[in-house]
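Practice problem: predict the structure.
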Amino acid sequence: MIPLVLIPGMMCDARLYQPQISAFSHRVPIHTVPVSTHSNMQDLAKDILDNAPPVFALAGLSMGGIIAMEVLRQAPNRIAKLALLDTNPRAEAEEVKSNRHVLMANVQQNGLAEVIANTIPKYFSPTESLSTQRNLEIIELCNAMSQSSGVAAYINQSMALRDRQDQQETLKKLAANVPTLILCGEDDQLCPVERHTLMKSLMPHADLHIIKDAGHLPTLQAPEQTNLALESWLFT
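Answer:
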């Protein structure tokens, strides 16, 4: 069985994929990789390739998906399957760059608490209550992952996202022969559905799944639906 490499999103770790690890680890070797060791996408991707099996299935969510595209760009022959979840193939927009500089300065001066508290609500639907038991547990987990990651990881990841290259040509040219899943939460505020229909237009062969009742983190917000899509992608 081809091993599965999971790339977490910004300020996340393997816990982002715990429902998937629980569902699939008895069927396939799973490797979850760190995403805070460098401040550019090229070196983050190179680290993954240096430590990954020779050929593997690759899945990434949000920043993890952006890194996955760079892994594909560097070594398309090593990617047996590709899953891009709640992510964005475009370079960082100028207005987002400007805001990112403000956030980085805030974190360097004041720590993570304020920035993370303002970010986490964007992981959910704008009309959704954050006080349900499920959402409170997800918020607690996101806070725990952020604190485990720390300020240095936030700065490194922010710089990598800020300076990333556009990967639309990578997807169009290099993913054509790779079985590909594109998946996102229907209510994702950070990487909206249109980013994923764009990727589908670049990769007509890809399967596109829009997960209902989920925002930016469908692996946690709708694990059953997400697992069904991933199972079909991974095992067929």
